[in-house]
Amino acid sequence: MKILVVGSGGREHALVWKLAQSPKAEKIYCAPGNGGIAEYAECVDIGAMEFEKLAAFAKEKEIDLTVIGMDDPLCGGIVDVFEREGLRVFGPRKNAAILEGSKAFSKDLMKKYGIPTADYQVFTDPTEAEAYLETAKYPIVLKADGLALGKGVLICKTRQEAKDGVKTLMLDKQFGSAGDEIVVEEFLTGREVSVLSFVDGKTIRIMTSAQDHKRAKDGDQGLNTGGMGTFSPSPFYTPEVDAFCREHIYQKTVDAMRAEGREFKGIIFFGLMLTADGPRVLEYNARFGDPETQVVLPRMKNDLVDVFEACIDGTLDQVELEFADNAAVCVVLASDGYPEKYEKGFPISGLEKFAGKTDYFVFHAGSKRTADGRILTNGGRVLGVTATGRDLKEARRKAYEATEWISFENKYMRHDIGKAIDEA
């Protein structure tokens, strides 16, 4: 079958890499793709938000399955466009992708259906938000309601920081219209865990756990980013935590969306905080996480095409997910200065050292391939270096070993990805 993947980051590279392993995948296209994806798929110069062009391309090439990797097109309604054109597509429709597209919606949904989360207030008026902050308990969390590339969350330790945050989000519009409405949320403490799941509208199948590192600098300092590294599984995601989440969070979310007339088919990403009072939902995403995908898919044994088709057809109850009894760690190599200002266009060397290896992987996020075959840096997060091992400590050692194989000017990374493993 012919497959089209929409997106251009490390997540999409991991998806294309995994799909290429399926005997059903005869030809893979990726729009727009990147320098690494071109190894497995034919990259197509169509932007992820050009829905009509993408649908026309899928028709022209007789694409059998389109996979949407990114949040923007999902929340913008790309699945609706493809379905209207009679095309087979994996991902939630626009009215279901709101689970990620509006934090106010998701918080209200959790409150209505008794899904455990942090206490919160929603504001559309900055003056009202500032008045609320006068009596709030600190630290406190401010979230832009809409999509902000994973960066629209501000943790404010003082009242002044929170007031400055309201100005940043609602008045200065640092994240554009995403800050028209904000969620002011109770600050939770504990271990953060990411859990991805497949959903077919009724049935949910849980993948292995992972843990992301959002902050730009070592010791969880610096600005929020799209993610600087991750590991899987999380040693803090115990069988007891899993049992609680299955009963009180996972299926209840699927059922709640169905009850609201927003049947969800695709990926639900549960961002959890394991508090002293039990697991709480921090956020939902309506697609694979990045860089969580880079450690989850290398451990997955199933044919990804089969699982995607089961989600579309409503037959996920017939699928059992299998994951290897191992571990994986991903370290992101970024351009120094990310997530703010950084330079790009530098040659990348050392990629050939990953060829033929089954326990070391390099997933491209911000790279491009030149006409003469060179790979250049082309973004803030450039590469995700992933390694698998018998356990997390071995996988971590190997991942950091592999980061030394790669060189480019302005290369930057955190040196403490997975350090929490030592505390487990």
UniProtKB/TrEMBL annotation:
Catalyses which reaction(s): 5-phospho-beta-D-ribosylamine + glycine + ATP = N(1)-(5-phospho-beta-D-ribosyl)glycinamide + ADP + phosphate + H(+)
What are the recorded Gene Ontology BP terms? Answer: 'de novo' IMP biosynthetic process; purine nucleobase biosynthetic process
Coiled coil region boundaries: none
One term of GO molecular function: ATP binding
Q: Looking at the record, which segments are called Disordered?
A: 210-231
Q: Which SMART domains does the entry mention?
A: GARS_A, GARS_C
Its pathway, per UniProt, is: Purine metabolism; IMP biosynthesis via de novo pathway; N(1)-(5-phospho-D-ribosyl)glycinamide from 5-phospho-alpha-D-ribose 1-diphosphate: step 2/2
Superkingdom of this protein's organism: Bacteria
* Cofactors demanded by this protein: Mg(2+); Mn(2+)
Locations of Basic and acidic residues compositional bias?
211-220
Q: Which UniProt keywords apply?
A: ATP-binding, Ligase, Manganese, Metal-binding, Nucleotide-binding, Purine biosynthesis
One of the Pfam families matching this protein, by short name: GARS_A
**In what residue span(s) does the ATP-grasp domain sit?**
107-316
In the Enzyme Commission scheme, what number(s) does this protein have?
A: 6.3.4.13
Among NCBIfam families, the record links this protein to: purD (TIGR00877)
Similarity remark: Belongs to the GARS family.
The protein in question is named Phosphoribosylamine--glycine ligase
